[in-house]
Design a protein that fits this description.
single chain, mainly beta, 7-stranded mixed beta sheet, 4-stranded antiparallel beta sheet, 11 strands
């Protein structure tokens, strides 16, 4: 089992930036591709970004490209998502997900990011 705990969310002003974190435990972190998803109020959960096991490759949803930066530190078992908070429509719960080569999938409980105008 992999446990994922997101942190770093909160209230942030539009036009600012925020970095949220997801710390993993339970298995070897570097065996998992890591992803971030977001779920805005009243909307479906959607993919934001992905980073490969060694951090060499990153992928972003077209809708958010340029606004997010995903990174990871395998020594700290942590994946990060830095975001530019443009407006209140960026308010969402952000979830991290771990996926192994064999398809094992784990989700965190989410961290709330609220953008104020």
């Amino acid at each position: 089992q992999v446990q994922l705990v997101e942190s770093g969310g909160g209230l942030v002003q539009a036009g600012g930036s925020l970095r949220i974190s997801c710390e993993a435990s339970g298995r070897t972190f570097s065996n998992y591709d890591m992803m971030w998803y977001r779920q805005a109020p009243g909307k479906e959960r959607e993919f934001v970004a992905q980073i490969s096991r060694n951090g060499a490759y990153t992928y972003y949803a077209a809708s958010g490209k340029g606004r997010f930066t995903i990174s990871r530190d395998n020594a700290k078992n942590t994946v990060y998502l830095k975001m530019i908070t443009q407006n209140p429509e960026n308010t969402a719960i952000y979830y991290c997900k771990a996926v192994s080569l064999s398809g094992e999938t784990y989700w965190g409980q989410g961290t709330q990011v609220t953008v104020s105008s």
